[in-house]
TrEMBL record:
Keywords: Metal-binding, Zinc, Zinc-finger. A zinc finger (C3H1-type) spans 53-81. Residues 53-81 form the C3H1-type domain. InterPro entries: U1-CZ_Znf_C2H2, Znf_C2H2_sf, Znf_CCCH, Znf_CCCH_sf. It comes from the Eukaryota. PANTHER family: NUCLEASE-RELATED, ZINC FINGER MATRIN-TYPE PROTEIN 5. Pfam families: zf-U1 (PF06220). This is C3H1-type domain-containing protein. GO terms for molecular function: zinc ion binding.
Amino acid sequence: MPARKFYCDYCDKQFQDTPGDRKRHVKGILHQQAKARWYDSFKHQQQQQQQIPNPPPLCFHFVNTGFCRYANSCKYFHPNAPSPSLSPGNAVGVSLNNLPPSLQPPPEGGYPHLPFVDWG
């Protein structure tokens, strides 16, 4: 019966799968360098994700009532109020008209009554 082979993804090598061989390979300097290079390849992606600032979430109290007791010191975004984090050239243009339907205030006369439909 042939001996099983172990494949190391970091080093792109195959060798006999015995506890001694595997231990010798994992402790080897070439394996440790290859493993460090592999993990370092993700640092660039992680740094790019940290550089993109996330805009603050909407202040639901302001969206629903048009008033926030914290005003400019509120940690959430007020759609109609000028935001210090957004410059005029980068303005997203958030207003009550372009919010998703679930965040828009109800119509002035209320929602229309729909006829009852018996399902099934």
